[in-house]
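User: Here's a protein and a ligand (L-histidinol). What would the complex look like?
Assistant: Let me lay out the input and then the predicted complex.
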Amino acid sequence: MTSQTPDSSAARIRRLDVRDPDFFAQLDALLAFEAQTDEAVGRAVDEILRAVRTTGDAAVLDYTRRFDGLTVTHMAELELPKSALAEAFAALPAEQKDALVRAAERIETFHERQKLEGWVIEEADGTRLGQKVTPLDRVGLYVPGGRAAYPSSVLMNAIPAKVAGVGELIMTVPTPRGEKNPLVLAAAHLTGVDRVFTLGGAQAVAALAYGTQTIPQVDKIVGPGNAYVAEAKRRVFGVVGIDMVAGPSEVLILSDGSGDPAWVAMDLFAQAEHDELAQSILVSTQADFLDAVAEAIERLLPTMPRREVIAASLAHRGALIRVDDLEQAVAIANRIAPEHLELALEDPEPWADKIRHAGAIFLGHWSVEAIGDYCAGPNHVLPTMRSARFSSPLGVYDFQKRTSLVAVSRAGAQKLAPIAATLAQGEGLMAHARSAQMRILP
Ligand SMILES: NC(=O)c1ccc[n+]([C@@H]2O[C@H](COP(=O)([O-])OP(=O)(O)OC[C@H]3O[C@@H](n4cnc5c(N)ncnc54)[C@H](O)[C@@H]3O)[C@@H](O)[C@H]2O)c1
Ligand SMILES: N[C@H](CO)Cc1c[nH]c[nH+]1
Ligand SMILES: [Zn+2]
């Protein structure tokens, strides 16, 4: 794959055809993306994790001075008071405040339905078995700094945590040279984040994972970030839980030729503008519709603010694919297992039933991913890089854990202890066998 940035006025998006004998090889080459661990990043992260684990606050302050250009000497300077969050929210223009509130309400309503409840079953002999559900005590939410910070991601991470009943939510966000993102702080206020520290990178992940004199250790770290953050999350996994290490964002659009080509072109752009490695693919049964989308891309791209990024992304990882029928389109969708799947179809429901692997499915021409990214209600933190084959959107269940409950009755023990003892003997574990047998009444 080339890394050249194409001319911003000409998007060189590739055209593929399922009838081409090399089609699947070309498709697989397009999909091939592995988050590679840069050795230099790995070494830097190792050093940062070690320093924070051994010296705590001193290392956090040192790295924050070094990487974010802050002249801080005390940890208190890195914590934003709750009043600063409330002020950021109060100072928002009414339209933004209203949008944030309405999005948060919809996200909360949707996530309420995901809450797992405990249960107990009772057997005839009085034995009770069950599952107790407990929210995590304390969670760390990493929010990237600078332009890459998405206030919508604060909502998408914090709301399910709060719905789950997480005891304490600690947010870290770097503020390079002291620049704060007021929408991020406002979103933290709105979602009830408990504490906010202005630090970032691997040192933030380390501080959350190990705890420092000032920053309390958390049980799980969620949220995206750059290569240092991703690598640090990978390395602290086990000490704490992590949500996932997300890859570049992806959209796959299936089209039967109905709808407006300009809408589809803009949906591809919406993915491509995230970054140059984002993946935007359109599959259609209609060659003339693909031509019309290609024309719309050429026409609309020069009007877009981030056209260099969009053009580079479409050139690197974009494609317009012709298929013979929608069955083939669905097979391609299941092979790609995309983060986002738009069914730009006249009658999407029967085709949605055939999709087995996708982070989120958007049905019909009005169900655009951009609405899902902000305010439809479902989470926008979704599995990427084919991981929708085995994982799910971020949800309330990611902030809850399950504990088994076993209450064997006296009568139940007479039935179960002999079984346990026999199996224990088969494993050669005699203390297990004796322990069970002691419960058998003479
Ligand atoms: N997947 C998603 O949903 C999603 C959403 C938003 C952002 N992102 C990603 O988040 C990232 C944001 O990146 P960012 O850099 O602007 O913010 P960031 O918060 O991820 O990283 C900033 C921190 O990186 C650390 N850092 C920078 N240079 C360093 C160096 N040489 N050595 C050690 N540490 C260093 C610093 O500590 C700095 O505070 C982007 O990669 C973007 O793609 C992903
Ligand atoms: N499409 C991104 C990953 O699902 C989420 C996002 C945030 N802001 C805009 N889009
Ligand atoms: Zn998006």
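Summary: The first strand starts at residue 14 and ends at 17.
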